[in-house]
Amino acid sequence: MGNCSCEVNCNEDNILALKEEEDQNETPPLIWKSLTPLLPNTTIKSKRLELKDIILVHLYLKNMKDFSSINSAYVTTFKHCLPARVCVETVLPEEVLFSIDCLIRQSDIKIDDGLFHPKEIPHVQNISHWAPANIGPYSQSIKVGEVMYPAGQIALIPSTMKLVSGRIQTEAPMSLSHTLKILEALHRGTGLHHILMAHC
Q1: Which residues pair with 32 in a beta bridge?
Q2: What's the sign of the alpha-carbon dihedral 88, 86, 42, 66?
Q3: How far apart are CA 2 and CA 92, in angstroms?
Q4: In the chain, how long is the greatest CA-to-CA distance?
Q5: Residue 62 CB neighbours (<10 A)
Q6: I need a surface site. Which of 5, 113, 167, 177 has the fewest CB within 10 A?
Q7: Cβ atoms of 121 and 81 closer than 8 Å
Q8: Which residues have C-beta within 8 Å of that of residue 20, sequence separation ≥ 6?
Q9: Which GO terms fall under molecular function for this chain's record (predicted)?
Q10: Those residues with Cβ within 8 angstroms of residue 190's Cβ, 6 or more apart along the chain or in another chain
């Protein structure tokens, strides 16, 4: 299978503001341009990969206050076959507003036994009682072959979509519980002890 990774940094040159006449009462929020022209297309094309082959995105924000604007623009690039996503606020260089790295894996090629490795993608869109609904344009997890790539989880109560109270003492166990349920939904018997890498 073809694999590669890429990284994109976004500064003020890649950002658009709302036009003044659209909202004169508030400071125009930052609007993310489409990711497509920012991706290193030479890397993707050289490996005969496409945007649909991206299975996991790490999105690093300088300020989580920009999340809503970035989230609304993110979907303009990933309209179909949404990759799983992990989003965190972190320290970035002064001129960088957010940074992205992607894991890309071509899953629609033939292997020796003549079979394919299709993607399995759960996408929780409505209020449920087993896992939080998606709060953005991403998939809860993507499974390719025997490997699963879950999205980041926060301590939302699935039935209300509100953050649980109690800070880290209750948030951490609930986030891990959501992760476990998503893993089990894709493959029965999968547990937290099967996790090879985690971002916290």
Answers
A1: 15
A2: negative
A3: 30
A4: 62
A5: 17
A6: 113
A7: yes
A8: 28
A9: diphthine-ammonia ligase activity
A10: 148, 183, 184
The single-letter code of the amino acid at 63 is N
| Chain position carrying tokens 């320290």 | 91
Q: Which two tokens stand for residue 14?
A: 């890649």
Q: What length does the chain have?
A: 200
* Placement of tokens 């993310």 in the chain: 32
Of 88, 5, 77, residue with least CA distance to 37: 77
Tokens coding 66: 């920009």
Residue 21 has φ and ψ, to the nearest 5°, of -75, -15
- The residue whose two tokens read 């005969």 is 48
pLDDT tens-digit profile, the chain (200 residues): 445 555 566 666 665 544 444 444 454 455 555 555 555 555 666 777 777 888 899 989 999 988 887 887 777 777 777 899 999 999 988 888 888 888 888 755 555 555 555 677 765 555 566 677 777 788 888 888 788 999 999 898 888 888 899 889 999 999 999 999 888 888 889 999 999 988 87
* Cα–Cα distance, 107 to 90 (Å, whole number): 31
Calpha distance 183→79 (Å, rounded) = 24
